[in-house]
Design brief:
It holds the Pfam family zf-RVT. It comes from Sesamum alatum. The protein is built from seven helices and no strands. The protein has 112 residues and is mainly α. The chain has one domain. The chain binds zinc ion (ZN).
């Protein structure tokens, strides 16, 4: 939403899940209470995931360099599922529970 607001002033920038703060990439992928529940259910190390440094590219690089090899596809698919869920909330007004997002990521991974 911060990126969209730069192009379209007046756009509501609050997170559509917690409505507590401005929605940034870091918030959507890491900080939002909803997202934190997803990570907690994911069986991926929070210590590794919670390592945002400067931007999303650095975060991906940092996490991918520290994850066990078998956790890498699950991490990437969870990021994708979080983004899909965010867009589903934005476009369709649908809210999925955190466990459903985790299961969606797993299903996407199996299908892939
Ligand atoms: Zn939030």
């Amino acid at each position: 939403m911060t990126n969209l607001a730069q192009k379209h002033p007046g756009v509501e920038m609050k997170c559509r899940f917690c409505e507590a703060v401005v929605e940034t990439k870091k918030h959507v992928l890491l900080e939002c209470p909803f997202t934190r529940m997803v990570w907690a259910l994911s069986h991926i190390s929070w210590e590794v995931v919670n390592s945002w440094t400067e931007d999303a590219a650095d975060w991906f690089s940092n996490v991918l360099s520290r994850l066990e090899r078998d956790a890498t596809p699950r991490f990437l698919m969870l990021c994708w599922a979080l983004w899909r869920n965010r867009n589903r909330r934005m476009m369709e007004g649908v809210i999925w529970e955190p466990l459903r997002v985790v299961n969606d990521a797993q299903l996407l991974l199996v299908q892939y």
